[in-house]
C-alpha cells in the first residue's frame, strides 16, 4: 500500500466514526453551526424546504478558518445562502458572536430563550466530521431535549474533491476533532464518547505522520 493510500485509509476510518448517520426527525427548530463550509447552509435550507423544521438559528461569528478569510460572520453568510435557496428571512434567527462549538450551542439556546422560544426538539446541522462532537457538546449542556444530528450527505472522497478544504488541513482538522472527542469530556465541554481502538490507532498514526496542527 502506498503512503498516500495508507493516509487516506486512516482518515476514512476516523471520518466514519465522527459521522453519526442519524435519521432526521421533524423538530421545532434547526440549529446550524457555522464554519468555512457553506454546504452546511445548503443542507439546512433543504431540510427546511422539506418541512422538517419551521425555524432556523444560524450560529457563528468567526472561527479558525474564517477569521481572516471572511468579512461577514459565518451566521450571516449562511443565512444569506439559505435565503437565496428559498428560506424566508422570517424563519431565520442569527447568533453571530460564537467562536467555538460550545458557544454555538449555549449562545443559540440563550437567544431562543430570550425570544421566549422553547423548542421541544431540535435538528443540529454541521459538517460531516463534526456530527459526533456537535452531538456530544449539545448533550453536555442540554441533556433532555431530543435532537437529531445531520450534515451534508457526501462521502469523504467527494468532500475532498469539492475543494472545500486543502487535504493536509483536512487531515490536521480530522485528527484535532478526534482529539477533542477524547479529551473534552474531562474539561467539562462534552459528554464522554467511546472511541474504538482501531479508530484511536488511526489517529495515533496520523499524528505520527505530522498531522498534529490542530491538537489543542
Automatic annotation (TrEMBL):
Source species of the chain: Chitinophaga ginsengisoli
Annotated Gene Ontology cellular component terms: plasma membrane
UniProt xrefs under InterPro entries: Cell_Envelope_Assoc, DUF218, Rossmann-like_a/b/a_fold
Entries under CDD domains matching the protein: YdcF-like
Domain DUF218: 28-158
Protein name: Uncharacterized SAM-binding protein YcdF (DUF218 family)
Amino acid at each position: 500500500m502506498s503512503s498516500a493510500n495508507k493516509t487516506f485509509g486512516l482518515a476514512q476510518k476516523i471520518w466514519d466514526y465522527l459521522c453519526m448517520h442519524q435519521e432526521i426527525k421533524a423538530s421545532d427548530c434547526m440549529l446550524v453551526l457555522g464554519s468555512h463550509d457553506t454546504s452546511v447552509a445548503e443542507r439546512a435550507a433543504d431540510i427546511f424546504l422539506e418541512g422538517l423544521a419551521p425555524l432556523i438559528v444560524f450560529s457563528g461569528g468567526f472561527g479558525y478558518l474564517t477569521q481572516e478569510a471572511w468579512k461577514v460572520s459565518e451566521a450571516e453568510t449562511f443565512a444569506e445562502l439559505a435565503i437565496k435557496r428559498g428560506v424566508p428571512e422570517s424563519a431565520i434567527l442569527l447568533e453571530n458572536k460564537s467562536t467555538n462549538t460550545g458557544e454555538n450551542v449555549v449562545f443559540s439556546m440563550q437567544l431562543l430563550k430570550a425570544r421566549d422560544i422553547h423548542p421541544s426538539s431540535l435538528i443540529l446541522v454541521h459538517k460531516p466530521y463534526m456530527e459526533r462532537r456537535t452531538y456530544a457538546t449539545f448533550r453536555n449542556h442540554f441533556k433532555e431535549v431530543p435532537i437529531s444530528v445531520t450534515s451534508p450527505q457526501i462521502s469523504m472522497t467527494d468532500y475532498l474533491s469539492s475543494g472545500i478544504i486543502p487535504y493536509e488541513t483536512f487531515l490536521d482538522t480530522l485528527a484535532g476533532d478526534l482529539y477533542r472527542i477524547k479529551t473534552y469530556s474531562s474539561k467539562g465541554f462534552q459528554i464522554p464518547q467511546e472511541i474504538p481502538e482501531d479508530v484511536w490507532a488511526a489517529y495515533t498514526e496520523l499524528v505520527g505522520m505530522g498531522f498534529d496542527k490542530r491538537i489543542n
